[in-house]
Amino acid sequence: IVESTFLGCHTSLVVRNLRNGMLLFILSEIFFFVSFFWAFFYVSIGELSSHGVSFWPPMGTKAIYPWKVPFLNTAVLLGSGATVTWAHNAVSAHNLDMENNKSSILINKKWWIHGLLSLGITVGLGVFFTWLQFNEYYMSSFSMADSVYGSVFFMMTGFHGMHVLVGTVFLLVCWFRLYLH
Asked: How far apart are CA 5 and CA 23, in angstroms?
């Protein structure tokens, strides 16, 4: 932050390399999750096709109904995507107004308040998602040790939940930085 904002040390080459590094990181995360989905679908199709006697999910495993908590979690994530986009637009407008000095302090404060509000809602949605996922784990009829179904389910949702938790902490830090700005 000091190097880029105050010292101006980020050349166009540094900015391009930072952008490429982030794109490669996102690409690696995509392949990481694709591998888990591939494992889940591969095992489920293999179970269904083996001599017609196997079941998916395995016997004794009660699958989680997708139109209750998982659907609510999806709606919460989509809502958090909308509110973080709102926050990004508010912070961008605030910064643009500050750079151009075209508007009054009241308009700048309006964008600052919009940024704080939308970022706060996003953090709240991230906490709510984490709480819902914890309750989903607590109420599930299977564990990670029960079968391939349980282990792949908990690995996929666990890593995704960890991503949401880290993102929530990151956005909380951004909220405090915006508040102190």
From this structure: 22
List, for residues 95-142, the tens digit of each pLDDT value: 765 556 655 666 678 888 999 999 999 999 999 999 999 999 999 989
Q: Is 56 left (phi over 0), alpha (psi -120 to 50) or beta?
A: beta
How many Å apart are CA 46 and CA 148, to the nearest integer? 12
CATH of 58-180, one of 1.20.120.80, 3.90.1150.10, 3.30.70.890, 3.40.50.720: 1.20.120.80
Interval 150-177: pLDDT, tens: 999 999 999 999 999 999 999 999 999 9
